[in-house]
Amino acid sequence: MEYRLGNSLRVKSRGDTVELTCPNCNKNVQFGVFSNFERRFAPKITLLDCKTVYFLVCPKCASIYTVDEKKGDSFKKGEKVSIESIDLKTLQEFKEKI
């Protein structure tokens, strides 16, 4: 299985969330938040699919989740309560376009 974490190979830690309930292990934990893309070369050109992908790792069971880019951007700006348990989505398997 291969998962695409965005357009860049560089992964950066964004801090820890407030205490959330992990959907997999049902424990209340502070997820580690990471992102993999932080530069935008041409934000107005739609030919480039440039997105910042935020993913969260449960410290108890190592499950990986993602959140919408807007939620992640708010978290990155210091709004720790912008990510809630209901915002966690399963990271989708990457299927290469042929």
Sheet bearing the most strands, described?
Answer: 5 strands, antiparallel
Succession of helices and strands: EEEEHE
Helix proportion of residues, in percent? under 10%
Distance between the termini: 17 Å
Beta-strand content estimate = 25-35%
Mean pLDDT: 79
Quick overview:
This protein has 98 residues and is mostly beta strands. The chain has one helix and five strands; from the N terminus they run ββββαβ. A hairpin with a 6-residue loop joins strand 3 and strand 4.
How would you sum up this structure, described in words?
- Helices cover 8% and strands 29% of the residues.
- The two termini are 17 Å apart.
- It contains 1 helix and 5 strands, in the order E-E-E-E-H-E.
- A 5-stranded antiparallel sheet has the order 1-2-3-4-5, with helices on one face.
- It is globular, with a radius of gyration of 14 Å.
- The N terminus is likely disordered.
- The longest helix has 8 residues.
- Strand 3 and strand 4 form a beta hairpin.
- By secondary structure, it is mostly beta strands.
Defining traits:
8% helix; 98 residues; disordered N terminus; single chain; mainly beta
Architecture blueprint of SSEs:
Blueprint: E1 12-21, E2 28-35, E3 54-57, E4 64-67, H1 69-76, E5 89-90
Antiparallel strand pairs: 1-2, 2-3, 3-4, 4-5
